[in-house]
Design a protein that fits this description.
heterotrimer; A alpha+beta (757); B alpha+beta (291); C alpha+beta (159); A: 757 residues; alpha+beta; Aldehyde Oxidoreductase, domain 4; Aldehyde Oxidoreductase, domain 3; 7-stranded mixed beta sheet; 18 helices; 32 strands; 25% strand; globular; C: 159 residues; Ubiquitin-like (UB roll); DNA polymerase, domain 1; 2 domains; 5-stranded mixed beta sheet; 31% helix; binds flavin-adenine dinucleotide; binds FE2/S2 (inorganic) cluster
Chain lengths: 757, 291, 159
């Protein structure tokens, strides 16, 4: 018998049959009796004082049921950084001031969407325009307009990370280089836009169905904003059409639908349009990097000093976390003995910049991996070699920050080295660039100030042996329902189809922080494993008694067979034991409970995954256009629970992170996003998609369930850097600002030619 | 949000022209709606009457004969042109162009006439049809008229169609012997609208590969699809060499009047014109030699 | 002002009265309750709304419902026969050709239209066939593998 009977197998997703038949219901599909449709009026100005809002005409329009503005709210401000009141800066419905183009000022509920939209045109908002600032470098100047009261120089958050003696170390370096980079914005482009159906009843209880990455956060934040008890707010996440970091903050659809529903005691549905999705939901944080890197002649990197200023946009959101993580991951995946990071997040009058898959790590990895290649070239060292020399290893302590247990970086480097050698001599204008990366398996941060465990799960075994798994984990497409069901089945010793998962419904599931920071597999996986083990223990107690097993024997369940570990033929059917246990306990339900919060695991994460990626491009030197030919990744994420899931995460990341490197951008003019449609926002499509190859590397993470760790966000880290390095290898030009467009490549090629002449 | 409208479905060209005449400014014609509906959803176009001509089967055809050349009804869907054996045999460049236009879904429902009447300077069919020396036939209650396609485009999204007029037919003359026509569009994402598109048709004379005639058309390089006549002059009557091709590209890039937008700067577009005119001409020449 | 729309959807004839401005996707979703067809952009760019109309893949967010008058529409709900999944659906399951699933209905319909027209597409033709459909989750390659599996005859339709 193989070690595992469920995990590691290529299984169908538990939500698969519904999704391939179109029967899976998303929030977007929900229609309730007596339901109204809502629309949100948004500011056309980047910075203005609201002098007056006249809703009377809109209210008179036939079919309009209610209009709400900031005056109808409790006037509270919120963010997911609840622990820090000064960072709770977003009212959602602005009362006195708007701070970006798209800031909500009013919302309407009407009998249909067209009527609601018509009503928006009838709301008259008198604005007094204020000077606005869009560039973070400008925003931090004395003369810049102040965006939030009391926030000097528009500096929203600062972050400092330091270890070793950086100044002294630079003195010992043989070689130092300093470079500047610009990392662009990026839109999540979830295929399901933000949406919510809120239903407040005459029983004073609110139920919200919403497309979210964290039903618990939404429950807590809505309750607070509307003055309700948390327990009176039930948030249910139906199937969700993507998240990528955009859906774990309270959004305007959720808040406005709830407010309108409370006013009317009728269900209200709000679906953001694609244009709103692009302009008025959050986005990847643009960052300006200045980096000083020092090394010995032999390539040993001694010191790194990083200064980052980020364009924060109008509100904090999760931008504070992005600022922190970009600083921490700027040291990844290398052993810098001396390191200093200073990050500044500036408020600007642009759409709030926040979390997107990888937080700030795709930015820091692009910067770090570009620069290390430059350094390697300067020192005449092979790019793989320099990474080997400095790369993290198992059981490494990031001074004062983090403890890394499992780490397969060096195996990944070996695999990619082999891959590059196999590719052999390349034709002209082709190049392979490498990029190494690491990422966390869930954050050990509690800025949300939750009193609950970070993850929790309940397992209930029914009389027929069917298992109900209750968890707050949010499957937004990444497949956590499947992975957690697999973990549950494995631990309990039953089959995958014995499990029925009930997830992300705060009415019946224990609180869980949700799907962000790549935390579900490890944190929720541990909680589920613990809950399943708890339930199993209850069964084994009975089985042991029934079998009359010697006390020294271990009992276990595998493949629905309850048995003695050392004498597997001696056992009983799982189904019989379930019945016996329930009967023997006066009919008491078998319930297993599990929870997980990382303790004593440093400041960042309980575990880290690593990988190395190689991108191959071919550049057309006359136009600057390049083709992504192949992206090969050696990734290690501990024990692979769900191999199909990991492949999907990896290939999907190449599309998204390749897009970040290649074509995705959000150009603005005076705070206005100029490409708010899928026609204008360029996304990699099937014809543009490179070949993808995965090279497996085995590791085992002691902190993870069955040795597993993350394989989600980390995969978005390497690609932009790998592409940049590949373009350099191919034609010798380096682009330091994302995205690396054909136009920039051509311009650089011309400059290079001119310099040569 | 689309404003309400009265919906009319003429079954013949005659009926359609009558309705068009009757409702004048208050009406709008819809063919496949692939471009129009987006404008209507944005509220940029809000007609009182929408005249749906997609069902007029008499304008959906592809015909070809040895004397007249190719005739395409304005309501022929892109995909029909792409798949048509007649087009593929005699006018392969049209099928190739269609194969890279938008997505299959849009090509299935959108029509060639709608594409031309929409007047997007980045549209693909126009440069190809200009290179092929096509004419457009229009009809109104007053009668029919025909114009060279290069005279059809007046400005961004503005065409020579008069009120009450419909585009009815695209006429592509017989391709002379020893002619090669090629179209290449440059874009970052494969199936996207062109950042710049270039179509070139070269006809070689019977004696020693002299370029007897050449037509160079540029898309997304000015406010309308345009011919690069000075660049043509560089090649016409000469034996084409790499140097001449480079020169033609250079001249075309000064003839073009592109704009800067979020996809590309003016400068970059000129550069693309320069490179593409050279490349496309070279390929057209190769084709002409084989033809 | 409302107009009659007669058409069949998944083999079932319907007669409806609708405002002429109604878009096909809204008729399918709101009037007929066939919510398998999604809307991702509403501007003909993402393909999530793809259905098959008279044998052709179209973006149902960009077709006036009345233009389907007299026509035949096939949506994702019409793919399976009873509880027997269509070969494409089985292949999508085996290859994990979806994650969030929001693009999946449209992907399946584009795939079906492709294979109906050309049962033996090359890899490049498969890519072309789904190029009008955006998937933000999978990176397409698993979808291409699923289609390749169907093309190779690994998923026979039950007779
Ligand atoms: C996502 C997307 C991508 C696209 N990509 C490309 C591309 O890569 N290359 C490209 O060239 N095009 C592209 N297009 C444009 C597409 O080709 C056109 O939208 C389509 O061909 C228009 O045809 P239609 O029949 O749908 O026209 P409609 O939208 O119905 O009409 C367009 C305009 O023409 C008028 N009109 C239509 N027919 C006639 C007629 N016979 N006489 C007079 N006026 C008429 C209408 O009143 C309207 O003003 C794209 C469109 C979309 C939506
Ligand atoms: S919703 Fe129709 S193409 Fe996006
Ligand atoms: S599966 Fe999520 S968009 Fe395709």
């Amino acid at each position: 018998m193989s070690k595992y009977s469920v995990i590691g197998k290529r299984v169908h997703r538990v939500d698969g049959p519904e999704k391939v038949t179109g029967s899976a219901k998303y929030t977007f599909d929900i229609v309730l009796h007596n339901m109204l449709y809502g629309k949100i009026l948004r500011s056309p100005y980047p910075h203005a004082r609201i002098v007056n809002i006249d809703t009377s005409q809109a209210e008179r329009l036939i079919g309009v049921k209610a209009v709400v503005t900031g005056k109808d709210t409790l006037g509270r401000k919120q963010s997911t950084w609840r622990r820090f009141p000064e960072l709770c800066d977003e009212e959602i419905l602005c009362r006195t001031k708007v701070r970006y183009i798209g800031d909500p000022v009013a919302a309407v509920a009407a009998i249909d969407e067209d009527t609601a939209e018509e009503a928006l045109d009838l709301i008259e908002v008198e604005y007094e325009l204020l000077p606005a600032v869009f560039d973070p470098m400008e925003a931090i100047k004395e003369e810049a307009p102040q965006i939030h009261e009391g926030v000097e120089l528009n500096i929203n958050v600062t972050r400092h990370i330091e270890w070793g003696d950086v100044d002294e170390a630079f003195k010992q370096c043989d070689y130092i280089r300093e470079d500047h980079f610009k990392c662009s914005s990026q839109a999540h482009v979830c295929m399901e836009t933000h949406c919510a159906v809120a239903s407040f009843g005459y029983d004073s209880k609110l139920t919200i169905w919403t497309s979210t990455q964290s039903s618990y956060y939404i429950q807590a934040l809505v309750a607070d904003m509307l003055g309700l008890r948390e327990g009176d707010v039930r948030v249910i996440k139906p199937h969700t059409g993507g998240g990528f970091g955009s859906k774990f903050e309270l959004d305007s659809a959720q808040f406005c639908a709830s407010l309108l529903s409370m006013k009317l005691c009728q269900p209200v549905k709000i679906v953001l349009s694609r244009e709103e999705e692009f302009t008025a939901t959050k986005r990847r944080t643009p960052m300006y990097y200045s980096v000083k890197l020092g090394a010995k002649k032999d390539g040993t990197m001694l010191a790194k000093e990083v200064r980052v200023i980020t364009e924060g946009g109008a509100y904090t959101g999760m931008g504070a976390t992005a600022l922190y993580l970009t600083g921490f991951f700027s040291s990844f995946p290398y052993k810098y003995p001396n390191y200093r990071y200073d990050g500044y997040r500036a408020y600007t009058n642009t759409a709030p910049a926040s979390a997107m898959r990888g937080f700030g790590a795709p930015q820091s990895t692009f910067v770090g991996e570009s620069q290390i290649d430059m350094l390697a070239e300067d020192l005449g060292i092979d790019p793989i070699e320099i990474r080997r020399k400095n790369g993290m290893t198992p059981d490494y302590e990031v001074p004062g920050q983090a403890h890394i247990q499992s780490c397969g970086l060096h195996q990944c480097l070996d695999k990619i080295d082999e891959h590059i050698k196999e590719r052999g001599e390349l034709p002209p204008n082709r190049g392979i660039g490498v990029s190494a990366y690491g990422f966390m398996s869930g954050g050990i941060f509690n800025w949300f100030d939750t009193p609950y465990a970070f993850s929790a799960a309940i397992v209930r075994i029914n009389i027929d042996g069917k298992v109900d798994l209750f968890t707050g984990a949010c499957d937004i497409g990444q497949g956590s329902d499947t992975t957690l069901s697999m973990i549950c089945a494995e631990e309990l010793g039953v089959h995958l189809d014995d499990i029925r998962i009930h997830a992300a419904d705060t009415g019946i599931c224990p609180a869980d922080l949700g799907a962000w920071g790549s935390r579900e597999t490890l944190m929720n996986g541990n909680a589920v494993k613990m809950a399943a083990a708890d339930a199993k223990r209850q069964l084994l107690e009975f089985a042991a008694a029934k079998l009359g097993a010697n006390i020294v024997y271990d009992m276990d369940i595998k493949d629905q067979w309850v048995h003695m570990v050392d004498r597997p033929e001696r056992g009983l059917s799982y189904f019989d034991i379930v019945k016996d246990t329930i009967r023997g306990r006066d009919g008491e339900t078998i319930i297993g409970r599990g929870h997980y919060t990382p303790h004593r695991k440093g400041m960042i994460s309980p575990a880290y995954s690593f990988g190395v990626q190689a991108a191959e491009v071919e550049v057309d030197t006359e136009t600057g256009k390049y083709k992504l030919i192949n992206v090969t990744t050696a990734h290690e994420s501990g024990t692979v629970i769900n191999p199909v899931g990991i492949e999907g995460q990896l290939e999907g990341a190449v599309m998204m992170a390749g897009g970040y490197g290649f074509c995705e951008d959000q150009p603005m003019d005076e705070g206005k996003i100029l490409n708010p449609s899928i026609a204008d926002y360029k996304l990699i499509r099937s014809l543009d998609m490179p070949e993808t190859k995965i090279l497996e590397v085995d590791t085992y993470e002691p902190e993870g369930p069955f040795g597993a760790k993350e394989a989600g966000e980390g995969l978005t880290n390497p690609t932009a850097g790998a592409i940049g390095n590949a373009v350099y290898k191919a034609v010798g030009v380096r682009i330091n600002d994302l995205p690396i467009t054909p136009e920039k490549v051509l311009k650089a090629l011309k400059e290079k030619k001119q310099q040569a002449e | 949000m689309i404003r309400d409208f009265e919906y009319l479905t003429p079954k013949t060209l005659e009926e359609a022209l009558t309705l068009l005449d009757k409702y004048g400014d208050e009406c709008k014609v819809i063919a496949g709606g692939q471009s129009l509906l987006i404008l209507m959803k944005q509220g940029l176009v809000a007609p009182e009457y929408l005249i749906d001509i997609k069902g007029i089967t008499e304008l959906n055809y592809i015909k070809s004969d040895a004397k007249e050349g190719l005739r395409i009804g304005a309501l022929t869907p892109h995909r029909a042109i792409e798949k048509s054996p007649v087009v593929r045999n005699g006018f392969a460049v049209l099928a190739e162009m269609e194969n890279r236009l938008a997505s299959i879904q849009t090509r299935n429902w959108g029509t060639i006439g709608g594409n031309l009447c929409h007047g997007d300077p980045a549209g693909d069919p126009a440069p190809v049809l200009i290179a092929l020396n096509a004419n457009l036939k229009m009809a109104s209650l007053k009668g029919e008229r025909t114009t060279a396609i290069e005279d059809f485009f007046l400005d961004y999204f503005e065409t020579a169609l008069e009120p009450g007029e419909l585009l009815t037919e695209i006429q592509v003359p017989v391709v002379p012997p020893h002619t090669g026509t090629v179209y290449i569009k440059f874009n970052v994402i494969e199936s996207d609208l062109a950042t710049v598109g270039v179509a070139v048709s070269i006809t070689l004379g019977s004696s020693e590969g002299i370029c007897q005639d050449v037509r160079i058309a540029l898309g997304a390089a000015a406010s309308t699809p345009v011919r690069a006549k000075q660049a043509e002059a560089v090649l016409r009557g000469k034996k084409i060499t790499d140097n001449l091709l480079r020169e033609a590209g250079q001249i075309a890039s000064t003839e073009a009047e592109p704009i800067s937008d979020i996809y590309a700067s003016e400068e970059y577009r000129r550069e693309l014109v320069k490179v593409l005119v050279k490349r496309v001409s070279r390929e057209a020449l190769a084709r002409a030699k084989q033809a | 002002m409302k107009k009659e729309l007669r058409f069949t959807v998944n083999g079932q004839p319907y007669e409806l009265y609708i405002k002429p401005k109604t878009i096909l996707v809204e008729v399918l979703r709101a009037h007929l309750g066939l919510t398998g067809t999604k809307r991702g952009c509403d501007s003909s760019s993402c393909g999530a709304c793809t259905v098959i109309l008279n044998g052709m893949a179209v973006k149902s967010c960009s077709v006036l419902a009345l233009q389907a008058n007299g026509g035949e529409v096939l949506t994702v709900e019409g793919l399976a026969k009873g509880n027997e999944l269509h070969p494409l659906q089985k292949a999508f399951l085996d290859h994990g050709a979806f994650q969030c699933g929001f693009c999946t209905s449209g992907m399946l319909m584009s795939s079906k239209a492709l294979l109906d027209e050309n049962p033996n597409p090359t890899k490049e033709q498969i890519k072309e066939g789904i190029d009008g459909n955006i998937c933000r989750c999978t990176g397409y390659n698993s979808i291409i593998r699923a289609l390749t599996g169907v093309v190779k005859g690994e998923y026979k339709e039950e007779k």
